[in-house]
Fold this protein.
Amino acid sequence: MSEPFLAEIRVMPYNFAPRGWARCDGQLMPISQNTALFSLVGTYYGGNGTSNFGLPDLRGNLAMGQGQGPGLSDRVIGEAIGTPTVTLLTQEMPSHSHGLMAGITPASTSPANTAMSPTATGGGNVYRAPGAAAPMAATAIGPAGGNQPHENRQPYLALTFCIALQGIFPSRG
């Protein structure tokens, strides 16, 4: 393997950072012991800039290129964006309905339109009062979900991201 550039980030398949590398876990590093690395990454990823600076934190995050692509928002180096969970609001979902259907004949093997039908083994018509059929009250079916957040990440594989603490100082091209 060739000598890395100082501050180069590589993906490692093991659970530790090799000698000369540090995990990209947001840790603070002392500037006095890492002046060359600090000159490259500054305080983009945290730290106070006088005695320490932060390394990138790629735990649970996806690396993204800086700048602006066609039709995309401008992204600045070190900017953290997004959230691992989302709670959908009613106005964020497409308009749709879930009609509740009932019948007076036994349900077939297909549940469509017969979710509230009596059973074929003799269950009575327990879902409507005797007399003419009538629609259920509009309040009989309401929103569901409880406003709980759900997972918002794409499938992923956990690996160790490491940043080079030693190496060739990169020249601007």
The longest strand covers residues 160-164. The radius of gyration is 29 Å. The helical segments are 35-41. Residues 21 and 154 are 28 Å apart (CA to CA).
